[in-house]
C-alpha cells in the first residue's frame, strides 16, 4: 500500500518538475547576483543622497536665518536713526513753542500797537443814560 502511494505521488501532475534549461538557470543566477549588488550599493547611494539632501536643507535654513538677521539689523539701525530724528524734532518743537508764547503775549502786542501803530486804548462810552 505504501508503494502505491509513492507511485501515485510520483505520477501525479502536481509533483512533476518541468525541465529547466541551463540558460534559464544562468539567467536567474545572473539576475540574483545583480539584485544582490544593487541592494548592497543601494544603501550607500541612499546614505549619500540623504547627506546631500540634509546639507542642502541646512544650507537653505542657514541662508534664511542669516537673511532674517540682516533684516533685523537693518531695521534696528533705521529705528535708531528715527529715534534721533524724533528727538531733534521734539527739541525744535519745544523751541518754536516757546517763541510762539513769547510773541503772542498780550503785553507785547499792546506795546507794539501803541508805539509802532499809534493806537490808543478805546475810551469807554456809556450808552443809553438819560437824565
Question: Your description of this structure?
Answer:
It contains three helices and no strands. The protein has helices at residues 2-11, 22-103, 106-115. It is rod-shaped and about 150 Å long. The mean pLDDT is 81.
What descriptive keywords fit this protein?
131 residues; 0% strand; rod-shaped
Describe, in short, the structure shown:
With 131 residues, the chain is mainly α. It is built from 3 helices and no strands.
* Total count of strands: 0
Question: Over the alpha carbons, how many angstroms does the gyration radius reach?
Answer: 53 Å
What is the mean predicted local confidence, pLDDT? 81
Beta-strand proportion: under 5%
Query: What kind of assembly state do the chains in view correspond to?
Result: single chain
Net shape:
rod-shaped
| Percentage of residues assigned to helices | over 70%
How is the biggest beta sheet arranged? none
Count of DSSP-assigned helices? 3
**What is the SS-derived class?**
mainly alpha
- Ranges with pLDDT <50 over ≥5 residues? none
Order of helices and strands: HHH
First-residue to last-residue Cα separation: 169 Å
Amino acid at each position: 500500500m505504501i508503494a502505491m502511494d509513492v507511485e501515485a505521488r510520483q505520477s501525479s501532475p502536481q509533483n512533476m518538475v518541468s525541465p529547466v534549461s541551463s540558460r534559464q538557470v544562468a539567467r536567474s543566477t545572473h539576475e540574483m547576483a545583480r539584485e544582490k549588488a544593487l541592494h548592497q550599493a543601494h544603501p550607500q547611494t541612499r546614505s549619500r543622497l540623504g547627506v546631500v539632501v540634509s546639507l542642502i536643507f541646512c544650507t537653505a535654513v542657514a541662508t534664511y536665518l542669516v537673511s532674517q538677521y540682516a533684516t533685523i539689523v537693518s531695521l534696528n539701525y533705521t529705528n535708531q536713526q528715527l529715534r534721533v530724528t524724533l528727538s531733534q524734532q521734539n527739541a525744535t518743537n519745544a523751541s518754536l513753542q516757546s517763541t510762539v508764547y513769547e510773541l503772542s503775549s498780550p503785553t507785547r502786542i499792546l506795546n507794539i500797537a501803541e508805539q509802532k501803530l499809534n493806537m490808543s486804548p478805546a475810551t469807554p462810552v456809556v450808552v443809553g443814560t438819560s437824565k
